[in-house]
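Write out this protein's structure.
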Amino acid sequence: MDPVGGALHLNSPAIGNYADYLLDEIVPYVDANFRTLATGKRRGIMGRSSGGYAAIYHAMTRPGMFNAVADHSGDSYFEYMALPEIAKLHMNLARYGGLDGLMEDTRLNTPKSQAFYDSISILTWTATFAPNPEAPHGFDLPIDLETGALREDVWQRCLQYDPVRMVSKPAYADALRNVKELFIDCGQFDEYNLQVGARLLSQQLRKMSIPHTTKNIPADTGHALPL
Protein backbone atom coordinates (compact mmCIF):
# COMPACT_ATOMS: atom_id res chain seq x y z
CA MET A 1 0.00 0.00 0.00
CA ASP A 2 1.30 3.44 -0.82
CA PRO A 3 1.65 6.16 1.88
CA VAL A 4 -1.72 7.77 1.08
CA GLY A 5 -3.68 4.54 1.05
CA GLY A 6 -4.86 4.41 -2.56
CA ALA A 7 -3.73 4.78 -6.16
CA LEU A 8 -5.02 5.88 -9.57
CA HIS A 9 -2.54 3.61 -11.40
CA LEU A 10 -0.43 6.49 -12.73
CA ASN A 11 3.13 7.50 -11.94
CA SER A 12 3.47 9.97 -9.09
CA PRO A 13 6.49 10.70 -6.90
CA ALA A 14 4.07 11.08 -3.99
CA ILE A 15 2.63 7.55 -4.15
CA GLY A 16 4.77 5.52 -6.56
CA ASN A 17 5.25 4.61 -10.21
CA TYR A 18 2.12 2.54 -10.69
CA ALA A 19 1.99 3.12 -14.45
CA ASP A 20 5.52 1.76 -14.90
CA TYR A 21 4.63 -1.24 -12.75
CA LEU A 22 1.49 -2.00 -14.74
CA LEU A 23 2.72 -1.30 -18.25
CA ASP A 24 6.45 -2.03 -18.09
CA GLU A 25 6.47 -4.91 -15.61
CA ILE A 26 3.09 -6.67 -15.46
CA VAL A 27 2.32 -6.62 -19.19
CA PRO A 28 5.75 -7.96 -20.25
CA TYR A 29 5.58 -10.58 -17.47
CA VAL A 30 2.20 -11.82 -18.68
CA ASP A 31 3.39 -11.93 -22.29
CA ALA A 32 6.51 -13.84 -21.27
CA ASN A 33 4.74 -16.40 -19.09
CA PHE A 34 1.37 -16.98 -20.70
CA ARG A 35 0.13 -17.83 -24.18
CA THR A 36 -0.68 -14.31 -25.31
CA LEU A 37 -0.38 -12.55 -28.65
CA ALA A 38 2.21 -10.07 -27.48
CA THR A 39 1.28 -7.07 -29.57
CA GLY A 40 -0.73 -3.94 -28.96
CA LYS A 41 -3.12 -4.89 -31.75
CA ARG A 42 -4.17 -7.93 -29.70
CA ARG A 43 -4.19 -6.32 -26.27
CA GLY A 44 -6.98 -4.62 -24.34
CA ILE A 45 -7.30 -2.71 -21.09
CA MET A 46 -10.34 -2.20 -18.92
CA GLY A 47 -11.13 -1.01 -15.44
CA ARG A 48 -13.74 0.40 -13.13
CA SER A 49 -13.66 3.59 -11.06
CA SER A 50 -9.99 4.59 -10.76
CA GLY A 51 -9.23 1.59 -12.96
CA GLY A 52 -11.57 2.94 -15.62
CA TYR A 53 -9.76 6.24 -15.50
CA ALA A 54 -6.43 4.44 -15.81
CA ALA A 55 -7.67 2.45 -18.81
CA ILE A 56 -8.50 5.50 -20.92
CA TYR A 57 -5.53 7.50 -19.59
CA HIS A 58 -3.01 4.81 -20.54
CA ALA A 59 -4.66 4.35 -23.92
CA MET A 60 -4.13 8.07 -24.57
CA THR A 61 -0.60 8.30 -23.22
CA ARG A 62 0.77 4.97 -24.46
CA PRO A 63 -0.41 4.93 -28.09
CA GLY A 64 -0.29 1.55 -29.76
CA MET A 65 -0.09 -0.44 -26.53
CA PHE A 66 -3.80 -1.29 -26.42
CA ASN A 67 -6.34 -1.83 -29.16
CA ALA A 68 -9.46 -2.22 -27.02
CA VAL A 69 -10.37 0.01 -24.09
CA ALA A 70 -13.27 -0.19 -21.63
CA ASP A 71 -13.79 2.64 -19.13
CA HIS A 72 -16.41 1.71 -16.53
CA SER A 73 -17.36 4.60 -14.22
CA GLY A 74 -13.95 6.20 -14.64
CA ASP A 75 -13.08 9.58 -13.19
CA SER A 76 -14.02 12.44 -15.50
CA TYR A 77 -15.48 15.95 -15.43
CA PHE A 78 -13.61 16.80 -12.25
CA GLU A 79 -15.86 19.77 -11.49
CA TYR A 80 -18.69 17.40 -10.52
CA MET A 81 -16.57 14.47 -9.36
CA ALA A 82 -13.91 16.11 -7.21
CA LEU A 83 -15.16 19.51 -6.06
CA PRO A 84 -17.91 18.13 -3.78
CA GLU A 85 -15.32 15.94 -2.05
CA ILE A 86 -12.77 18.76 -1.87
CA ALA A 87 -15.41 20.97 -0.20
CA LYS A 88 -15.68 18.44 2.66
CA LEU A 89 -11.93 17.89 3.06
CA HIS A 90 -11.26 20.67 5.58
CA MET A 91 -14.06 19.43 7.86
CA ASN A 92 -13.01 15.80 7.51
CA LEU A 93 -9.36 16.51 8.24
CA ALA A 94 -10.41 18.35 11.40
CA ARG A 95 -11.85 15.08 12.70
CA TYR A 96 -8.32 13.68 12.73
CA GLY A 97 -6.54 16.77 13.99
CA GLY A 98 -5.28 17.65 10.52
CA LEU A 99 -3.47 15.93 7.67
CA ASP A 100 -0.78 14.38 9.87
CA GLY A 101 -3.43 12.76 12.05
CA LEU A 102 -5.24 11.29 9.07
CA MET A 103 -2.04 9.97 7.54
CA GLU A 104 -1.17 8.31 10.82
CA ASP A 105 -4.61 6.71 10.95
CA THR A 106 -4.02 5.05 7.57
CA ARG A 107 -1.37 2.94 9.30
CA LEU A 108 -3.70 1.74 12.08
CA ASN A 109 -5.83 -1.37 11.87
CA THR A 110 -8.92 0.33 13.29
CA PRO A 111 -12.51 0.75 12.06
CA LYS A 112 -12.76 3.57 9.53
CA SER A 113 -15.51 6.14 9.15
CA GLN A 114 -16.98 7.51 5.93
CA ALA A 115 -15.02 10.70 6.58
CA PHE A 116 -11.83 8.66 6.44
CA TYR A 117 -12.66 7.08 3.10
CA ASP A 118 -13.87 10.38 1.62
CA SER A 119 -10.61 12.03 2.66
CA ILE A 120 -8.36 9.23 1.42
CA SER A 121 -10.17 9.22 -1.91
CA ILE A 122 -9.60 12.90 -2.62
CA LEU A 123 -6.07 12.90 -1.16
CA THR A 124 -5.11 10.01 -3.43
CA TRP A 125 -6.50 11.99 -6.34
CA THR A 126 -4.49 15.09 -5.38
CA ALA A 127 -1.31 13.15 -4.65
CA THR A 128 -1.50 11.71 -8.16
CA PHE A 129 -2.12 14.98 -10.00
CA ALA A 130 -0.37 17.54 -7.78
CA PRO A 131 2.81 15.96 -6.38
CA ASN A 132 5.29 18.28 -4.71
CA PRO A 133 8.44 16.86 -3.07
CA GLU A 134 8.73 20.02 -0.97
CA ALA A 135 5.24 19.73 0.53
CA PRO A 136 4.32 17.70 3.62
CA HIS A 137 3.75 14.08 2.59
CA GLY A 138 4.96 14.86 -0.94
CA PHE A 139 1.90 16.52 -2.49
CA ASP A 140 -0.02 19.77 -2.46
CA LEU A 141 -3.43 19.95 -0.86
CA PRO A 142 -6.30 21.32 -2.95
CA ILE A 143 -7.48 23.49 -0.05
CA ASP A 144 -6.08 26.18 2.19
CA LEU A 145 -5.67 24.52 5.58
CA GLU A 146 -6.62 27.66 7.50
CA THR A 147 -9.86 28.53 5.73
CA GLY A 148 -10.74 25.39 3.78
CA ALA A 149 -11.00 27.39 0.56
CA LEU A 150 -10.08 25.89 -2.79
CA ARG A 151 -6.49 26.45 -3.91
CA GLU A 152 -6.98 27.52 -7.51
CA ASP A 153 -3.37 26.80 -8.53
CA VAL A 154 -3.59 23.17 -7.37
CA TRP A 155 -7.04 22.77 -8.88
CA GLN A 156 -5.81 23.93 -12.28
CA ARG A 157 -2.94 21.44 -12.18
CA CYS A 158 -5.39 18.62 -11.50
CA LEU A 159 -7.76 19.67 -14.28
CA GLN A 160 -5.07 18.93 -16.87
CA TYR A 161 -5.66 15.22 -16.17
CA ASP A 162 -9.41 15.31 -16.75
CA PRO A 163 -10.21 13.00 -19.71
CA VAL A 164 -12.88 15.44 -20.90
CA ARG A 165 -10.08 17.97 -21.41
CA MET A 166 -7.37 15.54 -22.45
CA VAL A 167 -9.22 14.18 -25.47
CA SER A 168 -9.28 17.63 -27.06
CA LYS A 169 -5.49 17.54 -27.42
CA PRO A 170 -4.40 16.23 -30.85
CA ALA A 171 -1.86 13.66 -29.62
CA TYR A 172 -4.30 12.07 -27.19
CA ALA A 173 -7.15 12.20 -29.69
CA ASP A 174 -4.99 10.46 -32.30
CA ALA A 175 -4.11 7.71 -29.83
CA LEU A 176 -7.79 6.98 -29.15
CA ARG A 177 -8.72 7.34 -32.81
CA ASN A 178 -6.39 4.43 -33.55
CA VAL A 179 -8.00 2.18 -30.95
CA LYS A 180 -10.26 -0.42 -32.56
CA GLU A 181 -12.80 -0.58 -29.71
CA LEU A 182 -13.48 2.15 -27.14
CA PHE A 183 -16.32 1.61 -24.67
CA ILE A 184 -17.54 3.93 -21.90
CA ASP A 185 -20.35 3.36 -19.42
CA CYS A 186 -21.51 4.41 -15.98
CA GLY A 187 -24.31 3.76 -13.49
CA GLN A 188 -27.31 6.02 -13.95
CA PHE A 189 -27.22 7.27 -10.35
CA ASP A 190 -23.50 7.43 -9.65
CA GLU A 191 -22.82 9.05 -6.28
CA TYR A 192 -19.75 10.83 -7.66
CA ASN A 193 -21.73 12.24 -10.61
CA LEU A 194 -19.63 10.27 -13.08
CA GLN A 195 -22.63 9.66 -15.31
CA VAL A 196 -22.34 13.34 -16.25
CA GLY A 197 -18.64 12.93 -16.93
CA ALA A 198 -19.32 9.91 -19.15
CA ARG A 199 -21.80 11.91 -21.23
CA LEU A 200 -19.46 14.87 -21.59
CA LEU A 201 -16.55 12.60 -22.44
CA SER A 202 -18.66 10.97 -25.14
CA GLN A 203 -19.68 14.38 -26.43
CA GLN A 204 -16.06 15.47 -26.65
CA LEU A 205 -15.08 12.23 -28.37
CA ARG A 206 -17.74 12.86 -31.01
CA LYS A 207 -16.41 16.38 -31.55
CA MET A 208 -12.97 14.91 -32.14
CA SER A 209 -14.38 12.25 -34.52
CA ILE A 210 -13.28 9.39 -32.27
CA PRO A 211 -15.43 6.26 -32.72
CA HIS A 212 -16.69 4.78 -29.48
CA THR A 213 -19.63 3.09 -27.78
CA THR A 214 -21.22 4.51 -24.65
CA LYS A 215 -24.27 3.98 -22.50
CA ASN A 216 -25.69 4.68 -19.07
CA ILE A 217 -26.75 1.63 -17.10
CA PRO A 218 -30.55 2.03 -16.91
CA ALA A 219 -31.01 0.35 -13.53
CA ASP A 220 -30.83 1.97 -10.10
CA THR A 221 -27.06 1.66 -9.98
CA GLY A 222 -24.44 3.83 -8.36
CA HIS A 223 -20.68 3.87 -8.18
CA ALA A 224 -20.40 1.35 -5.36
CA LEU A 225 -22.55 -1.27 -7.07
CA PRO A 226 -21.50 -3.75 -9.78
CA LEU A 227 -22.22 -2.66 -13.32
